[in-house]
Amino acid sequence: MKEFLFLIIKTIHLNFTDLNLIEPIAKAIQEQGYTNPTPIQERSIPEILQGRDFLGCAQTGTGKTAAFAIPILQNLSKNKPSNRNIKALILTPTRELAIQIEENIQAYGKYLPLKHLVIFGGVKPGNQEAALRKGVDILVATPGRLLDFISQGIISLKNLEIFVLDEADRMLDMGFVHDVKRVIKLLPQRRQTLFFSATMPAEIQKLANSILNNPVKVEVTPVSSTAETINQSVYFVQKEDKLDLLAHILKNDIAESVLVFSRTKHGADKIARKLQKDGISTEAIHGNKSQNARQNALNNFKSGKTRVLVATDIAARGIDIDELRFVINYELSDVSETYVHRIGRTGRAGAEGNSISFVDGLDLLNLKNTEKLIGMKIPIVKDHPFHTDNLVAQKRDSNNKPFTEGSDRSQSQRSGAPRGGNRKPATPGASVGFKKPKNKNFTRKK
Known about the structure:
2 domains, 7-stranded parallel sheet, single chain, Rossmann fold, disordered C terminus, 6-stranded parallel sheet
């Protein structure tokens, strides 16, 4: 049995002897393809299931959403819902994070009778208000929209059992701390409180001390190192040329399956349409796809029926393929730790892997932050028809020191043909910054 699933079942079984309570959430977790629990999941899930207050110092990328979402779902599912009063409130600073958390709750709780909803500002409140009036068990919210609905009498927190404050330090940075304090004053005194923050400045620590009751404290540092077996490279390219560069690499340099990461759902669909038009079998998976569609796409990719899978970070969490040798970052994430998680999809179990990152002008800062996190300069591959030296110069200037360039070939061999000129089709693996496998046989991990 997978370690992650074993942790959940073992921990839940310690508290609930009725196996019918275990099966729905265990089944959903298994469908997500989770394998090993992250440190914060392993240390937090048992404590939260016991009803203890929790203080977690953990950055994005450490798996903290599952760390609190799974035990919340399990605890709330113990009792059959007799009404639809809000029992759990998850407060988060941004719309994007709120949506991400609600998508995770939907995935983990798909076989549970609990209703959940996400509310945030910047959109008309009508649909959100209508959903609230039908009743909600778990509410994910940003502070402004939550307080608006409370002031209108649409939301009541008097029956709340669990309160989660996520990314507390970012609340401080964005000026939401006073709103958070207003929300806290409306909460029942008897409740379970889960508090997460990437850092603990004095004001955040003071806030935590004021709302937590004898909490379990866990500090987890984000993953910051990449496997030595992964050969990493950067391709500098203008944004408007990225699609053509991707098609070029897939047609000329890589003959195997490739996992492509897109920052957005719309971007994933756009990439898939372009590659399909170019005759490359491609499917996209993201949060707007149904679970069946995502699972079918993943199965097609694993079986080789689909050569390229384009995924957003949330949708790609269940992808675990031992033989996958190529990952392409179509654009870099704003969260540096995400880079480590992305390229960790390849080079598994000691096998060689290859990561290629497309970098345009808007990605330069993300590249700089990523290199700082992993403690190395990622070599630049210049031998492709869409390379631009302007971006190399901008990167060098931003660092105030020479930037490392490299590929598998010598400098004299890296003079790529100009764009638009006649270019001899490359031998697979020739112009791309990766190593050829020593043999074509792969051993599936048992």
